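Dear colleagues,

For the upcoming journal club I promised to circulate an example of a predicted protein-ligand complex. I picked one with S-adenosylmethionine because it came up in last month's discussion. The inputs are reproduced below in full, followed by the predicted structure.
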Amino acid sequence: MKHSYFKIPGWFNYSETYDIIVDQIKDDGKIVEIGSFLGRSTHYLATSLFNANKTNVKIYSVDTFEGSSEHATLKLPKDFSSTFKNNLEFFIEKGMVTVCQGRSDSEEILNQFKDESVDYIMVDGAHEYEPVIDDIENWWPKLKVDGVMFGDDYSLPSVSEAVQSTLSKSNIKGLGVNMSHEQTWYSGKTLEKLKIFEKLVPGQNTLKKN
Ligand SMILES: C[S@@+](CC[C@H](N)C(=O)[O-])C[C@H]1O[C@@H](n2cnc3c(N)ncnc32)[C@H](O)[C@@H]1O
């Protein structure tokens, strides 16, 4: 299936990270994407999994579908939730994508995931300091022991400060930062898994061990 994610408006610059996730994940894996917006990133991920014959992987899209403060001035469809569902219809019907509509800190959504049950979590929701801290703290326990958490927009001071202050307190084995066009950070509970993501963009992707 040819990629068509680029027809969906949005903010998605971490395709190389998603390529490695697709390569690494087993066919019964789980991925949580916090901040799916109209589905640009989700569509890329689902198409790539489909093309890799990993159609049993479950992607959970957690979003209020209300947009963030930075979207207020943009011309966008009014109903983000319906637009997302239309854009992802093929993958939703296949059971590959599940919509979790609501705030990423809602008990109702968090309770749908057992501790240590998720392989990969992408944090791309609200980018302000406190919400990034909340996302990391609320979702870290959901990560499997060999899982990896990622986040976008590390170049924003609100994001990098939140990541550094939160992760220094948890049981992490390292913090990687990919300062190429991706601007992603990644962290996890075992160093071996993190090293796989370090090989992306040598020189601009640095992994500091704890
Ligand atoms: C930067 S956009 C995500 C971009 C998306 N990955 C793409 O490919 O276009 C951030 C998204 O986070 C959502 N969001 C903001 N705060 C949230 C929160 N507290 N809980 C859940 N979603 C939130 C917004 O509705 C918005 O769709």
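Two points we might discuss: Residues 10-12, 35-37, 40-41, 62-68, 103-104, 124-126, 131 surround S-adenosylmethionine (CB under 6 Å). The helical segments are 15-24, 40-51, 80-87, 89-93, 107-110, 129-139, 157-167, 191-198.

See you all on Thursday,
B. R.
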